[in-house]
Amino acid sequence: MQFFNETLLPAMWNHWPVWMVTFTLIVAAVIDGLQLKVPNWITFPLVLSGWAFSVWAFGLPGLGWSLVGTVVGLALLLPLYAIGGMGAGDVKLLAGVGAWMYVMLDATGSTAGTTAAMGYSFGLSAVVGMILAIGMVLVRKAWGKHYSQFWMILNEIRTVKDPNELSRIAANRKPSMLLLPYGIPIAIGTIMYFAWTGMLV
Question: What local confidence, expressed as pLDDT, does residue 133 receive?
Answer without folding.
Answer: 81
